[in-house]
C-alpha cells in the first residue's frame, strides 16, 4: 500500500494521525469504562445515570470522541477508506490490552489469539506495497 510516501512505509503525517487516533480512541473508551464503573453510591435506574453524568470521566470520554472524529476525518482524507478502516482496527487491540491492565479484565486464550491476528493484519496492511 502506498499511502502517499514510500512503498513500504506510511508518510509521517499519516503515521502521526494514525497514532493520535489510537490515543484518543483508547482514552475515550477507557474514560467511558471508568464512568460506567458502578459503586455503591451510584444507585439504580435514573439515579445511576445522573451519577454517571456528574463524573468527569464521562465528559473526558465525550471530549476524546470529538477529538477522535476530527483526527479520523483528517486521517481518512489522506488514505483510502479500506486501508484506513483496517489500520484503525488496531484500536481494538490497544483497548483490550489497556482494559487488562487498568480494569483487570480477563484475556482468554482466544482473545489473545484474536489480538495477535488483528495485529498481524494491521502490520500487513501498514507495510504492503
Could you describe the 3D structure shown?
The protein has one domain. 74% of the residues lie in helices and 0% in strands. The chain is built from six helices and no strands. The chain has helices at 12-36, 45-53, 56-76, 81-88, 90-103, 109-127. The mean pLDDT is 87.
Brief overview:
By secondary structure, the chain is mostly helical.
Number of helices: 6
Radius of gyration: 17 Å
Average pLDDT rating: 87
| Main sheet attributes: strand count, strand direction, barrel closure | none
Indicate the low-confidence ranges by residue numbers: none
The backbone outline, from C-alpha atoms, is flat
Summarize the helix and strand pattern as letters.
Answer: HHHHHH
What number of domains?
Answer: 1
Fraction of residues in β-strands: under 5%
* Helix/strand class: mainly alpha
End-to-end span in angstroms?
4 Å
Instruction: Please count the beta strands (DSSP E, at least 2 residues each).
Output: 0
Question: Which range best describes the helical content: under 10%, 10-25%, 25-40%, 40-55%, 55-70% or over 70%?
Answer: over 70%
